[in-house]
Every structure is written in structure tokens, then in C-alpha cells.
Amino acid sequence: MIDIPTEKEFKYKAFTALNFRQIPQISSLSDEQIEAISVVSHVLPFKANNYVVDELINWDNVPNDPVFILTFPQKDMLLPEHYNLMKSAIDKGLSKEEVKQVAHEIRMELNPHPDGQMDHNVPVIDGHKLTGMQHKYRETVLFFPSQGQTCHAYCSFCFRWPQFTGMDEWKFAMKETELLIKYLQEHTEVTDLLFTGGDPMIMKNKVFAGYIDALLEADIPNLQTIRIGTKSLSYWPYKFTTDVDADDMLRTFEKIVKSGKNLAIMAHFNHPVELSTVVVQKAIKRIRATGAQIRTQSPLMRNINADADVWAELWRKQVNLNCIPYYMFVARDTGAQHYFKVPLVEAWQIFQNAYQQVSGVCRTVRGPSMSATPGKVQVMGISEVNGEKIITLRFLQGRNPDWVAKPFFARYDETAIWIDDLKPAFGEEKFFFENELNEIFNEHLNKSTAGHFE
Ligand SMILES: *Cc1c(COP(=O)(O)O)cnc(C)c1O
Ligand code: SF4
């Protein structure tokens, strides 16, 4: 049973580069901070809303407040040369088009498409490229519904930033449910369908239910789990409490569960403060009452949550609220990575320290994990073997499923921040998967990745 909301509807108001000066709390910032928001938001996407501003950010703690850094552009998110380039373009009074061109040139230097996402993982059906889908790991297909490719607010570290700046024009997006269904029917190895974006929970229930009804009607036996990747519990929990169609959305969730499929909300929380409001706790309860599970994931980010105690508290709070800790990710090599990056060795130390502080019920979490070209690679730890200090890694997901769960070893390197920075241990020339990875790309994609790991 779903309880009827008692409080009155809370209205969403977005703040962007155009109107952020209307936020009353902005007047407490220095001129330099306000200028930084304006300059950086010409390059990286910026959107906040009244819930984030009024309930999550502690303005007494700005500029160090984690949610402020999570949502508001900071000067150091651009390299000094990029910042100065954009600032002088604005100061010189260049035309809108010219400023856009400068922004584009800077963005091209920020590795807008890490992990070859544009080419490597797009499935094909009857010779037709399904650009709104990705199928990288055998069991799970990602689906990018075209109406779900924006968010209630933007994370300053987001690796989908090119699509929010208009750079990709929603290239990963699709409307055609029939093609999705056909693909799932033909690929019986697929058990999981993950709705992602952007944030699919930006969709009105009417639109979302359209996809779900078609999928359930098609009655695809291999499809066992429907997942929804979302940050709405953090950025707009009213989605599930007082929005006009909140109850209808929960009924759609119930429908999925009643059909016998597992419904997993893959909720994105970066900091315990996002779990602290009455409304998010109520939203979690209402979602859980539909029979859906909530699994949680977050990247580890300098200046936001690079602290073991923060993670331990995050996992504990999640479990207390009936959510299941799932993944800790490492910052991707894109956008403002220089600002957020945590070296792999330090990431593992933070993970270990946090993991040691919590009981087994929180230890469903896995990490720190890199979503890299060959797969999801977990840093398992640091050890010493025959006098050589090494980093032990393993695949949590592999482009080839045979790679999964097999430990492999890299030379100890405190400065490495991504798998590309690591060298094989024990004098080996290559990691065990490298030849095969190159073959996969050469055969199926006619594309060489030579140099990627060298
Ligand atoms: C993480 C991820 C998945 C899901 O992996 P699980 O380990 O099953 O959660 C699927 N596809 C891609 C491309 C991913 O990055
Ligand atoms: S909610 Fe997800 S997709 Fe949206 S900006 Fe944040 S990380 Fe990116």
C-alpha cells in the first residue's frame, strides 16, 4: 500500500548560468566566486534547483560545502589557461557565437568521450545502429530513452557532460521501443535492462510507463531485472512524494514488481547529507513499499567525499534506510578530472579504511572501480611479493566475460589515477587481456586501440 502524501506539492525551480544570480544565498559569495560560476558554466554544464540550494547546501560552509562543489562550478574545475581563455573571451565582449566556439575548443581538450563510448558499445540490429543503447557486458543492456537525457541538477564531475552542453546533441538517445524489444528478444543472454541517461526519472510517469507497458507486454523471458539509474532521490525526491504524478510513478514500479521482474533503483548518492532530509527518507520508504530494491553507487571525488569516515557514514545511513551499497567508482578521465581525481592507491586506502569501519551488512559495496575500456576494474589492494610492491586488480565486469574475477597485477604506483597509467608487475610486457582487447576492436570494429595501454 502506498500512503497518500500529506504535505502540499513542492514546486521545482531550476537555476542555470542565466538566472543563478537570483538565488538569495549567492549574495554571500565573493565577486570572484560569482565570476567563476559564470566563466566555468560557459564550458561545463551547470544546473541546480531550489531543493539542492535550500535543503542540501549548507551556505555557512561554502565554498567547502560538498553539495555546493557537487553542483556549482568552481574556478579550479578549469585549468588556468582554459579559465583565462574563457574569461577573456567574455571580457572582450565577443559575440555569442564566438564565445561558443571558444567553449567548444576547450571542451575538445577535456576528453569528451572517454572509454570510446561513441563507437565501441553501440549494438546493431538488421544493420541499423541502435544509438540509444549500449551493450558492453553480456548480461546488461543500457537504454537511453530520449526523454530522459537531462537531470534535475547537474553534477560538476559528470562524464555525460558533453550531452548537457549540446556537444553531442543527445546522440545516445532513442524513442523506438520496438527496436529495444526486438534486440532483447534476439539476445537471450541479456537478463538486465538498465534505463539510464541523464536521469530517466526526469520523465513523467506517462512517458516512462509507455516504455514499461510495452516491455511487460512483450513478455521477454530472459529479461529478469529492470534497473533505473537515477539521482532523483538526491536532487529531487519530491518525484516520489508530492509531484503530481508521484503516485502514478510508484504504481508503475509496482506493476513491474507484480509482473515478476526484479526492479532495482540504482540510486546515486555522493554524500551522507543527501540522505538527511525528511523528504528523501520518505521517498525511499515509498519506493521500497512498491517492492523495488534500491542499490546505491557513487564516485570517489576529491573536494566532495575523499574521506573514509564520509564513506562509512554514507554506507551505514544507506543500510539503515533500507538501501544496498553497490559500487564505489574512481573519477573518470574526462571533464574536470584534474580537480576531482584521487590516485588509485589512495582510493583503495580510503575504501579499505571505510570498509573496515562498517559491519558486513554494508560490505555489499565493491570498489574502488574504474569503468575503463576493457571493463570495470577493481583495485583489490596493495601487496608485496618477493620484494616487489604491487597493486592487485580484478575485473568486476569485462568486455570478455572470461576476464571477470581473475586477479592481475600492476607495478606499485602512487601517482597512477587510471588503468592506462599502470604497468604490469613482475616484468611482464602486457596485462593478460591486452592482446585480446586489441583483437576485439580490430575484428569487430575495425578500430585499433594500440597505444591505449602502452
Ligand atoms: C556498470 C555497467 C553495467 C552494469 O554492470 P553491473 O556490474 O551489472 O552493475 C552495464 N553496462 C555498462 C556499460 C556499465 O558500465
Ligand atoms: S545525475 Fe548522473 S547523469 Fe546527471 S549530471 Fe549527475 S552524474 Fe551526470
Which small compounds were modeled alongside the protein? pyridoxal-5'-phosphate, iron/sulfur cluster
CATH class of the largest domain: Alpha Beta
Number of helices: 16
**CATH architectural group of the largest domain:** Alpha-Beta Barrel
Please give the domain count.
Answer: 2
Number of strands: 15
Distance between the termini: 57 Å
Please estimate the helix content: 25-40%
Report mean pLDDT, rounded to a whole number: 91
The outline comes out as globular
How would a crystallographer describe the biggest sheet?
A: 11 strands, mixed
What is the alpha-carbon Rg in Å?
22 Å
Strands in their spatial order, largest beta sheet: 5-6-7-8-9-10-11-12-13-14-15
Uncertain runs: 445-454
CATH topology value of the largest domain:
TIM Barrel
Q: Give me the CATH superfamily of the largest domain.
A: Aldolase class I
